[in-house]
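Pilot study result, target chain (411 residues):
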Amino acid sequence: MPARTISAASSSPAASTASSARQSTLRTANLALVAHQVLSAPTPVSRADVAASTGMTRSTASRLADDLVAAGIIAELEPAPSVGPGRPAVPLVAPSGTFVALGLEVNVAYMAVRAIDLSGDLLAERVVVDDFAGSDPARVLSALARLTTDVLTIAAVRQSTIVGAGLALPGLVSGDRLLRAPNLGWEDLRPSDILAPVLEPAGLTSIQVGNEASLGALTVGRRRPAMVHAWPSYIYLSGENGIGAGLVRDGAAVDGANGFAGEIGHVQVDPRGPECSCGNRGCLERYAGRRIILSAAGLADDAPAERLVAAWEAGEPRARAAVSHAAHALGVGLGAAINILDIPIVVLGGHLSPLTEVLRPELEEELRVRVLASAWSPPQVLRADKDQMSGATGAAWALLEGVAADPSAWM
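Predicted structure:
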């Protein structure tokens, strides 16, 4: 069923103020509707397409599209070749370089800053590879602020409208505070207190903070912000030494009552297992974290995943055992999650992404046995695009989707 535009009858002169307010609200809603139709479409659409999908008249859809083009929220391509009478259709697409958001991320093995526009293009990026386990948050966040300032000086970024900045962290986040990030060794801090003094001259007075896996989940199966998700519901696993999950149901992120949903890395899979940095024992990430898998396979901590895959394919016993133990632990944790959430699609990202093909056989078998509804809805294990900094990308996309949802605020 096509979406419908919203309209209202004219009011009496005595109610002119109320009528004006209603008309403004209707225009705001209809601008958002047109922006959504263009920005969510996998391929370019015309004004006629927008009118047909929304139920608007062609003149209304065209007028609103013109306003969005003028504001830089959508863009026009060259007209398509004419195949009949009438003027050729002008394709509408997400614009490049008009509105830009900054995605920041600190993880155990790196910090990153990305500048991304509404088309999903990466305009600039700065990455520092280091070991941030047990690091000083003030020192690390100060360095991240300087990295962000560097990105802001790049011409393509400087010439755009900066929507804002978002920070992805591997831990529990509540509002603008990081409560705990066990693998970083950080607790109870407000990142903006450190970042804002450096970034305020550039107009960034506050930083949105989110969980790295939840933000990374926003990028799965999509080429740019505001696009429709490839799968309506899925569990996305991400991480480096730790493992976090982003939950998406019917295209919307599920954060839980307090924003803490998705801490699957700290689900206990063996009560007699090794102690975890969170204080518990036998947590999933103690069996399927990057360093844990590599160490069990007899490889160095910094060995590329491809080396483990090659050893597994060659039948090397330690590599086979390491992958098998990780697949079993993932099966225990994910099996419980799928039984509770009824989300049978699992997408492996982060350090697990390049291991998907070697993990899948045993992991899917574990899930087949453990998931109650597997006979009717078999769990699927899929591979995310190889993007080790999906948290930074998702942090930027979340801000850009705010532009798509309320374009009138930026016009």
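One observation from the pilot: The first helix runs from residue 16 to 39. A full batch analysis is planned for the follow-on phase.
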